[in-house]
Structures are given as structure tokens and as C-alpha cells.
């Protein structure tokens, strides 16, 4: 552990690398993208628990802690949706600098918006996880009843119904929740993190 | 360490308390307020190094990483200054939930703005550190040449010259950099954190 060393600071500051040393793991944003009902949130919750059990430091950003706090002054216009993702990207970047794995679970349907977040980060610090599932599967799950409302025309511009979802072209990880169980999806991501040296 | 335990999760999520257990310390925002040149940034840098040496997880928010990132679309109008502090407060809150001590070093001259951040946090999670120094002292230091410009009228609305600074009424900690050395100031804050049980 770093605190047992006699560090000579030379006017420097605590860096990301110092934090990695203290934590004994690296840091990155794990960006879940996929349709409503694809399983982004569920997988991110389970992944966070698995990482915690392995002594890994994380934080999960989702609608609950972002839309009611940092982004409570944003609506759902195209500009506000873009600003929503931009702020989430900037906060993710700060948390990665702070030594955490940031688990961001948002539909984030547009390739351009996701790539802007990727551009914010250093190489290897943006892990795009495509949570793939057919619209039919997501609609059959419909955990929040949103597809039903979208089909009834009560919600306009719903991703997958009357607004596009742009799937990642070359994501770091794909999990197919039509086929894979929750446990298999989590294991796929953990294996990636270990194979790439993010975790000891 | 928590990872050695066999945790039964029961559908719960990783909480702030879990993170405190893993890190072996609590979390809070340490909010430095004071005039330009009072020593906020210098003290926060030194405090962060001292905490790191003790194995404590932190992150420092300052103009460099906030104004060029999350808040790059904000200017210096009264509304934008207020939104600047609001977003910093919301990010601080997320980082405290993530188990970190967030060291925020901004002039933050208005009591109301600081109190709004305090209100965001749980009891005991907002540690206001008043970095006290006379205008005369700060002006004699003038590390960025800003007082000179303000006196020459080249900068308008400069805190302490032609804009007010509202000192905290009941801050958790006061350091007086007219009197205390950098080391003494850092020690004062570390002692507070230990006395109040934030650190083991």
C-alpha cells in the first residue's frame, strides 16, 4: 500500500497514478448503452456489487442520481439531451481521475454523443458496453410500462419506437441479453477488465 | 477489508456505507472558502497529499478541472456564477456518495450559495473551512496579479475590492493564514477530521 512508503512529493500533486497505486486497480468509465429495457441498469448494479466484492472502487451514475441533482435544470429537448450526456461525460472523467470505475447507464442513443464522451477520456479509459437486445424483447419486458405508452402515442420520440437507436460500431464489450443471463453478462465484463489489466 | 467477507446482498446496491467500510474512512466535502490569495488552493493541495500519505481517498475540485470541463459553458454573470457553484456542489455530493473526501477550493463569496451546497449534503458531510486572511495580506501576495488589475479597474466585480466577501458565520474550521503556516493550517484540518471520527 502506498501509505507505507516514504513518498517525496517535490511540489507535485496527487495524480491518477497515485490513486491507482493506493487502490491497487486502474480506473475507467464503463459506459452502458442500449435500448430501454435492455438491461443496462440491472447489469450495472450487479457488476458494481461484483467489483465491490473484489475490493474495487466504483460509482454508478444513472437517472436517479443525475436527473434529480446535477442535471435537474435540463429537460428533454434535443439540446438538453445533448447537454445531459455531456455533463455525465465530464463527471465520469473527474471520477476516473479520482481513481474510480464510473458505471454510466443511460440509453445514450446517438453515436456522436457517446463518441464525444470517449474523446474526453484518455486512451483505454472509455469502455463502451453495448447491451444488445431486440426491440421485441425489450418491449416484452417493458419494466416501466414505457413501450406501452410510446405505442399509444403518449410518449413521443421514444428510442426504438419513433426515435432511432444508433448501435455502437466497435464497442469494447457486447452483451446480448436476448441470449446471456445476468450472471453471464457480468462475467463477460469482469473478464474483459482482467484481460486488459484494469484489475489485478 | 470488506472484500474478505462473504457479503449477502439481498438485491441491495453498493451504498456509501459499504464504501466507507472498504476504504476504512468516512467521506465528506471539505469546502474551502476565502479571498483570492488567501491560500485555499495551496492548503487543499497540501492537505490532499497528507491525506494520501495516510491512505485516504480524496479528489480536489478547482478552477482548472471544473471551468475547462463540466462548467466550460458558463461565464461570469451572476446567474452563471451561481450555477457554477451549484454544479460543483452536486458533483461534490456524488463524490461523497462514492466514498471520497472532496476538496473544493473556490472563493465562493456568498453565504447563500455555500449554504445551498450544505443543504444538499447529509449532516456532517459539509465541512466548511474558512481560509481567513486580510485583504491587505492577500493583496501583498497577489499570486496571479489579479488585485493589481482590480485596483487598476481592469477587472470589475473583484471579491474584496469592489465585490463583497461574506465570511462564514459558523464554519467547521477556520485557518488564519495571516498567522498560521501552511503546515499548521493542514494540521488544523487533519486534527478536526480525526477528532470528529472521519478518519480512523
Secondary structure elements and their pairing?
2 copies of one chain form a homodimer.
Chain A: H1 16-23, E1 29-33, H2 40-53, E2 58-61, H3 63-70, H4 78-97, E3 101-105, H5 111-120, E4 126-132, H6 135-141, H7 146-151, E5 173-176, H8 182-195
Parallel strand pairs in A: 1-3, 1-4, 2-3, 4-5
The CATH topology of chain A is given as Rossmann fold
Shape of chain A: globular
CA gyration radius of chain A, whole angstroms: 18 Å
- Can you identify the CATH class of chain A? Alpha Beta
Helix tally of chain A equals 8
Subunit arrangement of the protein: homodimer
Instruction: Give unreliable regions of chain A as ranges.
Output: 1-6
The CATH architecture of chain A can be named as: 3-Layer(aba) Sandwich
- What is the count of β-strands of chain A? 5
Catalytic activity (chains A, B): adenosine 5'-phosphosulfate + ATP = 3'-phosphoadenylyl sulfate + ADP + H(+)
InterPro entries (chains A, B): APS, APS_kinase_dom, P-loop_NTPase
Family (chains A, B): Belongs to the APS kinase family.
Function (chains A, B): Catalyzes the synthesis of activated sulfate.
Offer a few descriptive terms.
homodimer; 200 residues; alpha/beta; Rossmann fold; five-stranded parallel β-sheet; 8 helices; disordered N terminus
Overall description:
2 copies of one chain form a homodimer. Chain A has 200 residues and is of the alpha/beta class. The first copy, chain A, has a single domain, classed as P-loop containing nucleotide triphosphate hydrolases (Rossmann fold). Helices cover 44% and strands 12% of the residues of chain A. The first copy, chain A, is built from 8 helices and 5 strands, in the order H-E-H-E-H-H-E-H-E-H-H-E-H. Chain A has a 5-stranded parallel β-sheet, sandwiched between helices. In chain A, helix 2 packs across helix 8 and helix 4 packs parallel to helix 5. The first copy, chain A, starts with 15 loop residues before the first helix and ends in a 5-residue tail after the last helix. Chains A and B meet through helix 1, helix 2, strand 2, helix 3 and helix 4 of A and helix 1, helix 2, strand 2, helix 3 and helix 4 of B.
